[in-house]
Amino acid sequence: MSSANPINATQTHSQVLLFPKGGKPSLAPNEWLVWDTKDEDGLPLEYANLKVLVPFTWWRNHITSDPQEATLLAKAKQGQIGVWFAADDDILKHADLIEQGKQIWPVVAAHFPLFRDGRSFSTAALLRDRLGWEKEIRMIGDVLIDQLLQGARVGFDSFALRADQNLDVALKQFDLFSVTTQNSWRGKRSLLTTS
Fold this sequence. Notes:
The chain is about 25% helix and about 20% strand. The protein is an alpha/beta fold. A nine-stranded mixed beta sheet has the order 1-4-5-6-7-8-9-2-3.
């Protein structure tokens, strides 16, 4: 029996909300399985042909010591493996590994263990602003509609909402405000002119 399992407790929709920089929000199939593992084994066989987000700490521990390192790298380069960061991962401490990952990971994610735990907002901002990540950053875990606007401002462009969240309402969140008063990853603040 495999000890691998999807990330504990948080159920998500079969679709994710995509909001690329410069684009419009839309729904797309959720193709990525989020894997949470406590063991030191390789990826389970049942995940062999799936797109899998593995924990960053697992990747970090296995990429240099796993006898199947070449297989992991090949799967990542083929777009089948990305990583997810826990809320307490110190990504700046591992900037060199993330720099290498920019060449192979098609997507990264930041996990919200609870909706009120905002540490993963900083993860997305650091990935964009300091580490130059230009590909998809997905918000995973206990993700609520209330977090979408803030997430989009700091660098998230993909959102795997909790299963009890209404996707139609989520799509409308990005139309609530036409003026911004702060700069963000998406652009400069709105400049109000007087007549």
